[in-house]
Every structure is written in C-alpha cells, then in structure tokens.
Amino acid sequence: MVVEWSSERHLFDVPDEVAYFNTASLSPVLRSVRAAGESALRRRARPWEIAEADWFADVERLRALAGRLVGGDGEGIALVPATSYGFAVAAANLALAAGQQVLVLADEYPSGVYTWRRAVESAGAGLRTVTRQPGQTWTEAVLTAIDERVGIVSVPNVHWTDGGLVDLERVAAAARAAGARLVVDASQSLGVLPLDVAALRPDFVVAVGYKWLLGPFGRGYLWVAEEHREGRPLEENWIVRAGAEDFAALVDYRDEYLPGARRYDHGGRTQFEVTPMAVAALEQVLAWGPAHIAATLGLLTAEIANRITAADAGFTVAEPRGPHLLGIRVPGGATGRVAAALRDANCFVARRGDAVRVAPHLHVTATDIDRLVTTLIASGTP
C-alpha cells in the first residue's frame, strides 16, 4: 500500500473475511446503529412505557442532525421514506408550464426520472435527457444543455453508476441565470461531500438514509427551500398539524401546519423501531465529518484506481468523479466474469452496465483493497 489511513473497521459489523465495496447500494451496518435498533425493538415491545412526548422527541433530534449535514438548516428538513417521495413533493410544488422542459442525466437513478416523466406529461411539458460526448464531463454536458426552455434542472452531485462528478455550484448558477428551478438528488453524496444549501440555493434536496448516511431503510431526508415551505404536502396526516402534541385535543381539527418543512413529513414518521437507528447513524457521520470521510475515501479510491491503471490490463476509470465512488470499465465484455470472480472471493461490488462500481466506506482495510485489485485484474485479463 502507498497510502496510509486509519481504518474504522472496529465500528462496523463487517466480518474480517468480507471485503465490502458496495456502500452506494446498501451501507454496511455500524455497531452503534445495530445496538440502537435492538434497544428500540425492546422499547417498542413495552408500549405502555412510551409517553406522548416520545412521538416527537427522537424525530426532532433526527431532523436537527440531518439539518447539520446541509449547513445547519434543520427547519428545512422533512422526513420522507424514499427518494421517490421526495421527488414527488418537489414535482407537486414546482410549477411547469406547457412547453417547458425538465433536465435530467442519461442513465440516472430511476425514481427521479419516473417522477419527472409523470410531471411533464401532466403539464404538457417535456423531458430533456443530457448525454455526454466523448471527453466531456457531466458538468460541461449539463451547462451546455441549460437554456430558457428548461424549467427544472434535476441532477445528482455524482452519477450513481460510476461516480461521475457534477459541479453543483456551476449548475446552480446556470439554472438561476436561465430562470430554472434546481432539484438535487444527494443520495449518493450526502454524508461524504459537504453540502451548504445557503450557498448553493437549491429548491429541493433529497437523500436516502441507507447508503452514505449509514442508516436503516425507510428513512430519508428532504430539504426544502424556505420559499416552498408553505406548499402542498402529498398527504394530510395528524402529526404535522399545529397542536399535535396535545393528544386530548386531536379531534379539535386544525388547519395550520407545524412550522418549517414539517408539513412534508410522511405519515408514520415516528417509526419507533427505525428512528433511533437513523439518529445513531447521523451522529457517527457527523462525528467523523463529511470532509474527513471524503478525504479518506478519496485516498482509498485513488489507490485502487492507480493500481488498476498500472496493471495495464485494459481497465479504464471514470474521471472526474466523486472521491467515494469508482467506476471501473472492464475490457472485452468481461464484466460478468469479473463480478462473479469477486463474489467468489467474498469481495462485493456492484455491476453497472460494462463497469463495476466500487464504493468503499471507512470500514475498508488494506487487505480488502489487495483482494479487490488482485481478483479484478486476474479475472479481467484474457
């Protein structure tokens, strides 16, 4: 190994014999998150010990933690179950005129694409899919495609298939100049790449919790710009209404919502079994800090990329990319053979088209990297 870092393997529930490089699909589990889940199940088994205030306390703690990840704006955080829910909120609260277009990336994550397909169909608008020309970055392709016909720009910070980087600051500036709204899917970046919504000024940012935020399924986060916090939620549930803390007065129906982005929280948001796990996950992510996570993972992926390139076996690496994701294109249509060999070696990556996607976290060790590189080169060489 050329690089040096301090692996945090002891904090993760990952056996020594497993080399796991698929955080972009489903994160490894922190021991603190597992312990929080087990404790939450024991608590849920004794409902008589759950007080009315408990329906709100952990949720608000989680909201504040998620707010710190986007620059401190906890009041702008809504708790959602999935990216599709967050995209649906955005689509319901961003006006599209007939003839306008929603800009998305080619081969982007399906939930956003399906949402915008429905939205443009209803509005008589269109979908503009951006592709890259040879040698062109995603940022360059997006900037070239933005014009006065684009009403909404919906992009990630990194492309989910290979980690290709999108410069959100430049895209946000171009969107504002064209009079377009900006929706960011941060599912593959929040928790690693720093994000400051005050500086970026997007309209909506959505992220799931079970990837780089190291949390459980069923918990995602939607940041809503202040100008949209008086909008229409997807559902009308009791717990987001003013006065919801007073259970005795719930039948005194109220039209007012709780402040901030809370009106967009999904029903059943309390999730006694899940929320403590999400809290433990965000606490650890914030304790490390996204900047530290990004710097460390950048060392790991650079080491892998350098060793793969030095092998001169025909592999190519996507650039520019996020520090935490590495798309390695396999020569000669051998992606299936390579993926199978890696599985047989207890080394887990994702297969995306003609590439394998490598997505480590701080649990990765030098031994893991050696196994990945050795197996990949051996199986990919004719």
Q: Please state the overall shape, judged from the principal axes of the Cα atoms.
A: globular
> How are the strands of the largest sheet arranged?
2-8-7-6-5-3-4
What would CATH call the class of the largest domain?
Alpha Beta
The CATH homologous superfamily of the largest domain is named Type I PLP-dependent aspartate aminotransferase-like (Major domain)
The helical percent reads 25-40%
Q: Quote the average pLDDT.
A: 95
The CATH topology annotation of the largest domain reads as Aspartate Aminotransferase, domain 2
Largest sheet: 7 strands, mixed
How many DSSP helices? 11
The SS-based structural class is: alpha/beta
Low-confidence stretches: none
Order of helices and strands: EHHEHEHEHEHEHEEHHEEHEEEH
Plain-language structure description:
The chain is α/β, with parallel strands linked by helices and 382 residues long. The protein is built from eleven helices and 13 strands. It folds into two domains: 9-30 and 289-380, Aspartate Aminotransferase, domain 1 (Alpha-Beta Complex), CATH 3.90.1150.10; 51-271, Aspartate Aminotransferase, domain 2 (3-Layer(aba) Sandwich). Helices cover 36% and strands 14% of the residues. The protein has a seven-stranded mixed sheet with strand order 2-8-7-6-5-3-4, with helices on both faces. It has a four-stranded antiparallel sheet with strand order 9-10-13-12, covered by helices on one side. A two-stranded parallel sheet has the order 1-11. The longest helix is centred in the last third of the chain and has 21 residues, at 290-310. It is globular, with a radius of gyration of 22 Å. The two termini are 26 Å apart.
